[in-house]
Write a sequence for this structure.
């Protein structure tokens, strides 16, 4: 493709993506944004970025082409047992308590990518004989990522050095070309497509005892991220918890959720 991303083109493509999925690419992301955009436009058969934009904006009534671009741009970097300690604290503390008090619990992994996070949660719960009493919902904007999650087949990089060997041996089969999850863990998770900027779709998830929304808020402008956090907070049951990534903080958003530290892990709890 004989083209490059001019400032004007960058602005209109950025506006289109933010409108469709809330994704924001700032000046520091311009190089990777341009490379991925050009590659996807060329793969779609366009020689002009402007023609590609017109296709997306005016000749894509179903939104399928825009969704395909979103999937091409969003980085699905995750792996089993990532940021494990907060998940352990969530299971051994909050979820164990909810099950004891209410008999059942409900958890939502709100940006699950290829599924390693909710599947790790399922392993932890099963290891503690809690899985049958916890409903796990997992959603992502990418149907391609969800297809991988539901297949239970992952690349070798999905299992990194330092993982808990006993859990991995019990629930994962490691082969020469990839990692396969035991079917019982996959069956314990309900995977479905959901866009976090779609207020009605988020509301339809219903009340949950905990939300995992880790390492995703940085994709959005602050105002969009604030709206997402507010929507997630409204779904939390009384005394429910929101868990974000270890490098993320909600303090600058002014959330109404109360921050708590448990054994070095930070959670945001809805007031009882």
């Amino acid at each position: 493709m004989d083209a490059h991303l001019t400032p004007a083109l960058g602005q209109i493509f950025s506006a289109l993506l933010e409108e469709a999925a809330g994704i924001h690419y700032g000046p520091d992301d311009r190089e990777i944004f341009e490379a991925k955009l050009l590659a996807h436009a060329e793969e779609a058969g366009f020689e002009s970025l402007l023609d590609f934009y017109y296709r997306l904006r005016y000749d894509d009534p179903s939104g399928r082409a825009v969704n395909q671009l979103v999937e091409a741009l969003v980085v699905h970097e995750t792996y089993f047992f990532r940021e494990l300690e907060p998940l352990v604290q969530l299971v051994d503390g909050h979820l164990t308590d909810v099950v004891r008090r209410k008999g059942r619990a409900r958890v939502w992994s709100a940006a699950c990518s290829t599924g390693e996070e909710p599947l790790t949660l399922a392993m932890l719960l099963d290891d503690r004989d809690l899985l049958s009493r916890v409903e796990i919902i997992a959603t992502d904007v990418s149907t391609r990522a969800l297809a991988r999650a539901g297949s239970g087949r992952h690349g070798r990089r999905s299992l990194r050095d330092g993982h808990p060997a006993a859990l991995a041996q019990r629930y994962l089969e490691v082969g020469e070309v990839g990692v396969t999850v035991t079917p019982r863990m996959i069956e314990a998770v309900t995977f479905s497509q959901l866009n976090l900027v779609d207020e009605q779709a988020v509301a339809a998830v219903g009340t949950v005892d905990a939300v995992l929304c880790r390492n995703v808020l940085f994709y959005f402008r602050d105002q969009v991220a604030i709206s997402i956090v507010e929507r997630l907070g409204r779904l939390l049951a009384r005394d429910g918890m929101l868990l974000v990534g270890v490098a993320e903080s909600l303090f600058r958003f002014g959330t109404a959720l109360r921050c708590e530290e448990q054994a070095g892990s930070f959670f945001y709890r809805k007031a009882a």
Notes: The two ends are 57 Å apart (CA to CA). The mean pLDDT is 90. The first strand starts at residue 105 and ends at 109. Strands lie at 105-109, 134-140, 153-154, 172-174, 179-181, 189-193, 208-212, 236-243, 258-262, 265-269.
